[in-house]
Amino acid sequence: MIAGLLMMAAGVNVPNEYFGDWSVTTTQGGSSIASIKNNAGSVFGVICIEDTCTSFFNPTVPCDEETKYPALVNAPSAAFPVTMECVKAGELNLYTFPMDSGITDAMSIGGIIGIAYPMKSGEFKVERFSLTGSARAAARAGQIAKFYALPANKKGSDKSTL
What pTM value is reported for the model? Predict the structure, then answer.
């Protein structure tokens, strides 16, 4: 499901909204993505579908679909482990993990978030992302997804405004 949403987002004509360093994109299906791209070309963000949001990470490293990978997240709020699951979206390799209190606390405090993950070589790679605007962007993505999930706003209805 997440893979399909990211594929749809590529062809969206809805203007992005910006919150600090983060942007929010709405897909054709009404789901929403809040994200940031770092200087290395990796993307970190949140995908919201109806009333559920999931964190995702798109490093420039391939993964095996449906395989779970350990990672360590570090932010000013705390350091904590996460288990990421690989999801393929066309050519994209996405690592998804729950949007839990660790991630939401990190976003609300701000600063820089680091994600360390193991490589096949036995070394770790670390990606860093700004959290400036992340809490507002994630909240907006959730708001948009919930709005479009309402029955009156489903595809085919012309009564929706946001």
Answer: 0.82
